[in-house]
Every structure is written in C-alpha cells, then in structure tokens.
Design a protein that fits this description.
Length: 57
C-alpha cells in the first residue's frame, strides 16, 4: 500500500486513510516490533515538538 496523500484541510477521510495505512504497515509485526515502531515514531514526534517550543522562545 502506498503512503496516502492528505488534503490541505485534513478531513475525516484523511484520518481513515492514515489509520488504514498504519494498519497495513503493522499488521504482520510481532508485538515487540509494533512497540519498537510506535516508540521510535513517538520519540521523533516528541523531539519535533521540543524543537518548535524552543523556536517560539
């Protein structure tokens, strides 16, 4: 499955596309692989949030 193209307005359909895409990425992973996948992505998002907070100051 290809990465979904999201609309500029970010509609409910975009959320459905993202959830479906994420399901296909993770459906064959073991529980540990899924935890690692989500933790890695979560850490990256947290880093981006911290960078933006520093830019505001």
């Amino acid at each position: 499955m290809e990465k979904p193209n999201l609309s500029p307005d970010f509609t409910i359909e975009d959320i459905h596309k993202l959830r479906e895409y994420n399901y296909y990425l993770t459906k064959d992973m073991t529980p540990q692989e899924r935890r690692d996948y989500y933790n890695k992505r979560g850490i990256e998002v947290h880093r981006q949030i911290q960078e933006r907070k520093l830019q505001k100051v």
